[in-house]
Design brief:
The complex is a heterodimer of chains A (257) and B (243). By secondary structure, chain A is an alpha+beta fold. Helices cover 34% and strands 14% of the residues of chain A. In chain B, helix 3 packs across helix 4, helix 4 crosses helix 6 and helix 7 crosses helix 9. The chains are: A alpha+beta (257), B mainly alpha (243). Bound molecules: FE2/S2 (inorganic) cluster.
């Protein structure tokens, strides 16, 4: 660690402020100074909010929870890019060393019809929850964890399932897609369970119901631009969308549903 | 028995047991399939059409012979034309409805938007509707010029059945300034459309795998270039060759 590299930044922030779901919003400009390059992006917003509270202004509302890149709660569009300029990185894991002294940073919330703005940078992502609910259950025993070797899963299958399961449901795919399509999210969930033995019983029903809910929630259509994959902090691959397409076709043609 | 009567209450499709089919076609993923399949079949047409039209470089006789041989199979031509119309209309219809749906789903636009795909500034993939619209305009003019023969100013061959007619009429269209420009632009934009569309169709059909996807992407780009250069070269060189 080269601590000598740590510097302080003076920044101009242009942040989307919107008092409520129905109110009109707009960009508002703020100045922050003395931001350490070792800070995370959210810590920088914390500094701004301290400053706003001290001067009697409403702090900027933004979502966050774990601040270690695993919960998927955080997420804003930074200079036009979901989760900012780094690939495979959530907003909370983005560090201020990525910026230069004197930079102007534009911060906007996820925008999509299916993700209505609640306030400032916070959007309502419950459409994702409804898609997950539509996916239903998997038929596995509850109670004690089963003995690990009763269900054998080959390593490469585990790998595929794990890389799909890495999706943290943050919504960056929808935010970055010009069509506000949720296919990367849905495909990660579908591929994950379709890959492993535990997900087989409800495999067809799951994909049909999740896609039906995705469509009903007014997400857009995928046009294979790949913006979602590039913006995804969990690096979910586009091959999952191809798998989703296959699963859906298979379920339509060969299942009883 | 009880099963089928219960189903019949759900309309004609239910009676026929085709609700699943309707669900497939009205879903976002089903529409992508149709988009991909129709697109790929239309690519097949482009290959045969380009192959036939390249005979224009060989001169009037080979081209006329080819055209008459083709048209003498009129039953096949009728079926093929009907198929092409269906493919084309399905492709265009879905392009319009999904684009409207996508626009509604996006609804709000960012003050600032940048791609996170490394190296991408502006790609063919974001312009599929625009490029498709240009191609549609080109195809409509092309059909008016040469399939329907509706543009008096082109001086068509007096007897449309005559041996010389196909080459004469094609040259008449290719020498017309409006058609020439539209055909040229149409051919180039068609190539741009294919450079994303070809590979994209495979993804929509669920065919994406590290084993062959890189190859499909390269083939898609090469295919786009071949189609664009192939058709554009006819527009550029053929009128001067057989003046
Ligand atoms: S706050 Fe949990 S992923 Fe960023």
């Amino acid at each position: 660690m080269n601590h000598a590299a740590s510097k302080n930044l003076n920044l101009t922030l242009k942040i989307w402020r919107q008092a409520g779901p129905k109110q009109a919003g707009g960009l508002k400009t703020y100045q922050v100074s003395g931001i350490s390059t070792d800070m995370s992006f959210l810590e920088m917003l914390d500094v701004l909010n301290e400053q706003l509270i001290a001067s009697g202004e409403e702090p900027v509302a933004f979502d966050h929870d774990c601040r270690e890149g695993i919960c998927g709660t955080c997420g804003v569009v930074i200079n036009g890019q979901a989760h900012g300029p780094d690939s495979g990185t959530t907003t909370c894991q983005l560090h201020m060393r990525r910026f230069k002294d004197g930079d102007t940073i534009v911060i906007e919330p996820w925008l999509a019809k299916a993700f209505p703005i609640v306030r400032d940078l916070i959007v309502d992502r419950s459409a994702f929850d409804r898609i997950i609910q539509a996916g239903g259950f998997v038929s596995v025993n509850t109670g004690n964890a089963p003995e690990a070797n009763t269900t054998l899963v080959p390593h490469h299958v585990q790998q595929d399932a794990m890389s799909a399961a890495a999706c943290i449901g943050c919504g960056a795919c929808v935010a970055s897609c010009k069509n506000a399509s949720a296919m990367l999210f849905v495909s990660a969930k579908v591929s994950h369970l379709a890959s492993i033995p535990q997900g087989q019983g409800e495999r067809s029903k799951r994909v049909l119901n999740m896609v039906a809910t995705m469509d009903a929630e007014h997400f857009g259509n995928c046009t294979n631009t790949g913006e979602c994959e590039a913006a995804c902090p969990a690096k979910i691959n586009l091959t999952n969308i191809a798998q989703l397409n296959r699963e859906y076709l298979k379920a339509s043609l060969f299942s009883k549903e | 028995m009880t099963d089928s009567t219960a189903q019949c209450k759900r309309g004609l499709l239910g009676c026929l047991g085709l609700n699943w089919f309707f669900r497939l076609l009205s879903s976002s993923i089903g529409q992508k399939f149709v988009m991909g399949v129709t697109g790929l079949l239309l690519c097949g047409f482009l290959v045969t059409h380009l192959a036939g039209n390249l005979l224009l470089f060989a001169g009037a006789k080979p081209f006329n012979e080819y055209a008459h041989a083709l048209h003498s199979q009129w039953e096949l031509v009728a079926v093929a034309e009907l198929g092409l119309v269906v493919l084309f209309l399905a492709h265009v219809y879905l392009a319009v409805t999904t684009t409207i749906g996508n626009y509604r789903a996006r609804r709000e636009f960012y003050v600032l938007k940048q791609s996170k795909v490394p190296g991408r500034i502006i790609g063919a993939n974001t312009w599929m509707f625009a490029s498709g619209s240009v191609v549609l305009g080109f195809v409509i003019l092309h059909l008016i010029d040469l399939r329907m023969g509706l543009r008096r100013s082109l001086h068509y061959f007096p007897d449309p059945e005559a041996f010389e007619a196909p080459f004469h009429n094609t040259m008449a269209a290719l020498s017309d300034p409006i058609s020439r420009v539209v055909y040229f632009v149409g051919a180039i934009i068609l190539g741009v459309h294919l450079s994303h569309g070809f590979a994209s169709a495979f993804q929509s059909l669920g065919l994406n795998h590290p084993k062959y996807t890189p190859l499909i992407k390269i083939i898609g780009k090469i295919f786009g270039v071949i189609i664009a250069i192939g058709f554009a070269s006819i527009v550029v060189f053929v009128p001067g060759m057989w003046r």
